[in-house]
Amino acid sequence: QVQLVETGGGLVQAGESLRLSCAVSGRTFSIYAMGWFRQAPGKEREFVASISKLGVSTYYADSVKGRFTISRDNAKNTVYLQMISLKPEDTAVYYCAAGRDAGALDFGSWGQGTQVTVSS
Questions:
Q1: Looking only at Cα atoms, what is the longest distance across the chain?
Q2: E strands along 1-120, which residues?
Q3: What one-character DSSP code corresponds to residue 9?
Q4: Phi, psi values for residue 89, rounded to 5°
Q5: What's CA 1's distance to the chain center, in Å?
Q6: Are 11 and 117 in contact (CB under 8 A)?
Q7: How far is CA 2 from CA 35, 37, 50, 58, 96, in A?
Q8: Of all helices (H) and strands (E), which one includes residue 47?
Q9: Pair 79, 20: CB distance under 8 Å
Q10: How confident is the model at residue 91 (pLDDT cuts 50, 70, 90)?
């Protein structure tokens, strides 16, 4: 069983940056594709970004392309989401996910989430 713990959320102003981290334990990290999703109040959970098992391939939602960067450090069992130029519409709970295929968004394990709030 894999465990995922997100950290790094907070309250920032529009235009500022944040970096989220997701520490993974319980299984060999490099066997998992990893992803970030988010859920805003009253909305469904949506895809943000994903990265393949060895970090070769990355995928992004159109709404975050050019502003968010997903990366992973397999030696530290951690996946990151660097967010710049944040907008109020980025406000959401951000969830880390682990799974089989980053491109197919095939994820089966989830963290508890970390709140990101962007004020205007």
A1: 40
A2: 3-7, 10-13, 18-25, 33-39, 46-51, 58-60, 68-73, 78-83, 92-101, 106-110, 114-119
A3: -
A4: -75, -5
A5: 20
A6: yes
A7: 14, 17, 17, 22, 12
A8: strand 46-51
A9: no
A10: very high
What is the three-class DSSP state of 77? Answer: coil
Q: Does residue 29 sit in helix, strand or coil?
A: helix
> What are residue 33's DSSP bridge partners?
99
| Tens digit of each residue's pLDDT (9 = 90 or more) over 54-68 | 999 999 999 999 999
* φ/ψ of residue 107, rounded to 5: -125, 140
Q: Which of 70, 78, 94 lies closest to 30, judged by CA? A: 78
Say how far apart CA 107 and CA 4 lie, in whole Å. 12
Decide: helix, strand or coil at residue 12. Answer: strand
The strand pairing partners of 118, in sequence order, are 12
**The dihedral formed by the CA atoms of 87, 89, 95 and 101, expressed in degrees to the nearest 10:** -90
* Three-state SS sequence of 53-68: CCCCCEEECCCCCCCE
